């Protein structure tokens, strides 16, 4: 059984990224895993200021915001799923701020091991659409010594006249991803 922290870096609870994570969570819970979902759109999290206080005071970030509420959930999880819409060819600002603030939990640039997954959505579906954010994800997870156990990118999530929608095939794939975690 895994203890999965799902971090949704979207600003919309009714959006494609949130729906994609709902499908993943359903599969993971059916597989017997414990899932804790955090919606960053409801949180106030600023990026790391680089002050270094966390490396001098027992790994406690000096910035007092919603990240303080998330650190305990991160500490308890063994698996981290990051979910983000594509914003300007990268992860959302909320997701980036969350990732930066994980610096506080490092000890001498060593991080507690996590298995990680990435779910992303985007309006277009070109072959290059997710190239930059997936590269970023692969780099920082490798740098932190974490193990990537899955990436799913859901392109083509804009319908006619800009209406948001996500194809059922993406929801099914995310559900199966959650269900298949061992």
| Strand order in space, largest sheet | 2-1-3-4-5
Q: Measured on Cα atoms, how large is the radius of gyration?
A: 16 Å
> How many helical stretches?
5
CATH topology: Rossmann fold
Chart the SSEs and their pairings.
Layout lengths: L2 E6 L7 H15 L3 E6 L27 H10 L2 E7 L7 H9 L13 E7 L9 H13 L3 E8 L13 H13 L2
Parallel strand pairs: 1-2, 1-3, 3-4, 4-5
Question: How does this model look, in words?
Answer:
With 182 residues, the protein is α/β, with parallel strands linked by helices. The protein has one domain: Flavodoxin domain (Rossmann fold). Helices cover 33% and strands 19% of the residues. It has 5 helices and 5 strands. It has helices at 16-30, 67-76, 93-101, 131-143, 168-180, and strands spanning 3-8, 34-39, 79-85, 115-121, 147-154. Strands 2-1-3-4-5 form a 5-stranded parallel beta sheet, with helices on both faces. Strand 4 (115-121), helix 4 (131-143) and strand 5 (147-154) form a beta-alpha-beta unit. The longest helix has 15 residues, at 16-30. It is globular. It starts with a strand and ends with a helix.
Brief overview, please?
This is Flavodoxin family protein. The protein is α/β, with parallel strands linked by helices. It has helices at residues 16-30, 67-76, 93-101, 131-143, 168-180; strands at residues 3-8, 34-39, 79-85, 115-121, 147-154.
Question: Top keywords for this entry?
Answer:
33% helix; Rossmann fold; single chain; 182 residues; 5 helices
């Amino acid at each position: 059984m895994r203890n999965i922290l799902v971090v949704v870096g979207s600003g919309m609870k009714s959006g494609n990224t949130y729906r994609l994570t709902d499908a993943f969570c359903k599969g993971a819970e059916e597989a017997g895993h414990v899932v804790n979902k955090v919606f960053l759109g409801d949180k106030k999290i600023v990026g790391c200021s680089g002050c270094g206080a966390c490396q001098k005071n027992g790994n406690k970030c000096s910035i007092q915001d919603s990240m303080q509420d998330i650190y305990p959930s991160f500490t308890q999880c063994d698996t981290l799923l990051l979910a983000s819409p594509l914003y300007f060819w990268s992860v959302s600002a909320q997701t980036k701020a969350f990732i930066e603030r994980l610096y506080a939990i490092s000890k001498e640039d060593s991080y507690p091991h996590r298995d990680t997954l990435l779910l992303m959505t985007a309006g277009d579906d070109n072959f290059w659409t997710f190239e930059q954010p997936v590269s970023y994800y692969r780099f920082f997870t490798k740098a932190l010594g974490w193990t990537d156990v899955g990436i799913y990118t859901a392109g083509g999530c804009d319908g006619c006249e800009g209406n948001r929608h996500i194809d059922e095939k993406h929801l099914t794939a995310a559900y199966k991803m959650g269900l298949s975690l061992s």
